[in-house]
Amino acid sequence: DLTGAADRLQAGQRRARSGGPVDFIDVSVIDARLRDVESQIRQRRVDEKAFR
Question: What pTM, to 2 d.p., does this model score?
Fold first, then answer.
């Protein structure tokens, strides 16, 4: 479920950026994966509109 994956990645972003030392590599990986999932969600919506 892409929406669930995006939600989990957003939660991971918030947790990684709140308090404590920040591991920029981990944050960068989470950001990249979130951008990919969001891109897939947008593409799925475009595809669904095309098939209507």
Answer: 0.85
